[in-house]
Amino acid sequence: MNKKIFQLDTKTLHQIQDALYETCGIHLTDTKQTMIQNRINVLLKDSICANIHSFDDLFCAIKNNPQIRQSFINNFTTNKTDLFRESYHFDDMLNRTLIPLLQNNESINIFCSASSSGEEPYSIAATCMYAKNIYQSHSTIKIIATDIDTNMLNLAKKGEYTLDLRLNKIPDWVTLDNYFDILKTTPHNTMYLRAKKSLKDMITFRQLNLFSKSYPFSNNEFDMIFCRNVLIYFKQSDQEKILAKLHNILKVGGTLYLGHSEDILGLSSQFDRLGNKIFIKNSESLMGIF
């Protein structure tokens, strides 16, 4: 394979940016050229790309070969996540959102819209399990966790993690062995964990592209939606479209949790702010906004 053929020039860089945007909505600027070059190099080492000998071959394959198109997407997703990341959202679940639902034994539906390798939905499930025990509730709790990256979804379904307690702060209320099998502990406070079946049974993992024109859910379906640290990879106009679709599938009075650097943008009148990127839906679903 001639490496020079795959060296990015300005034209090819823009073609890759365009292909990525068209397939999944991820928007990368020209400042990301080195990262784009590196991830294309990784993609081309995959055995499924053995018959690709030029960028023209690659763009044709992305368009016509579903396997290569998915691998292209997987190579450009960012998957930084931890158990109980941004823990104030789990505190809010315990101290506010879950209380009336559990006390009334209501069915609870939660959407985790960018689940990556699964730490976030398992953290949500553990929080629900802990609160359900406190209130001796009979609520049925269902969590739908989605991601566009099929490699990450496969990891999430396994639910196996390495936890460095020196780097990852776990809330005081979390007794890890209530929710995870402790496979191994090292002298340096590193733990190898596997999510218990009781957690896994609460979660359904599915592939979903947030850039899609519509989502396979009903209006007012969810009590809570987690959409954290993923909007930042979309253009602002596309962020607002995603937020509008999330608004539609969230119940009035339901809670939307965003990442620390994200905001509700043009939908501010449709939500009440509680601080810490916590938003409460205050109006019925929006129509004709896409």
TrEMBL record:
It catalyses: L-glutamyl-[protein] + S-adenosyl-L-methionine = [protein]-L-glutamate 5-O-methyl ester + S-adenosyl-L-homocysteine. GO terms for biological process: methylation. CDD domains: AdoMet_MTases (cd02440). GO terms for molecular function: protein-glutamate O-methyltransferase activity. Coiled coil: none annotated. Keywords: Methyltransferase, S-adenosyl-L-methionine, Transferase. Residues 1-284 form the CheR-type methyltransferase domain. It comes from the Bacteria. PANTHER family: CHEMOTAXIS PROTEIN METHYLTRANSFERASE (PTHR24422). This is protein-glutamate O-methyltransferase. It comes from Helicobacter didelphidarum.
